[in-house]
Specification:
By secondary structure, the protein is an alpha+beta fold. Helices cover 21% and strands 26% of the residues. Strands 1, 2, 3, 4, 5, 6, 7, 8 and 9 form a nine-stranded mixed beta sheet that branches.
Length: 163
């Protein structure tokens, strides 16, 4: 099995993952670019709602994830660039226990992204984190919205959008 660094190199060479810097002169500077979306890790510990407000103040939102490939690219990039981060808030939430999971940016939530047995039905766990660990047993995890965590903001790179 390839190491994390080899996996990132593979993603970089395939074009799925692009690490950018301020010199690139686009809205993804100092961010992780996956496809036409830019992701920024914020190490400040905040509640889910405060993290969402912080992202919105930067013309972004808490991240949604559209595929397992996107998830894998982000996990590898975060592990390599932020080795001390063990989990981040992402934009998944439920308005109430009986409602369906949804993304803060309005993208349709694909329930196939949950791994078996992950959809928590605990009424106090209505926000979603993305654990950054070696196990694929926890792609997303339902947790209390009041927990303090680092967070992952996301925005679309309009230069690369397909409109």
């Amino acid at each position: 099995m390839a190491s994390g660094l080899q996996f990132v190199v593979l993603l970089l060479s395939s074009g799925l993952l692009q690490l950018t810097s301020a010199a690139d002169d686009d809205m993804c500077h100092d961010a992780i670019q996956v496809g036409n979306r830019c992701f920024t890790v914020h190490l400040q510990q905040d509640t889910w709602r405060s993290a969402l407000q912080s992202c919105l103040s930067q013309n972004a939102t808490l991240s949604s994830l559209g595929s397992l490939e996107e998830y894998s690219a982000l996990i590898s990039a975060i592990k390599n660039s932020f080795p001390g981060v063990d989990s981040v808030w992402i934009g998944g939430f439920k308005a109430k226990l009986e409602s369906k999971w949804q993304w803060a940016d309005g993208m349709e939530f694909n329930p196939k992204l949950w791994l078996a047995g992950q959809q928590c039905r605990d009424p106090g766990l209505l926000c979603m984190e993305m654990p950054i660990n070696e196990s694929r047993d926890e792609a997303f995890k339902a947790v209390s919205c009041d927990a303090l965590k680092a967070y992952l903001c996301m925005r679309h790179d309009s230069r690369h959008s397909q409109q």
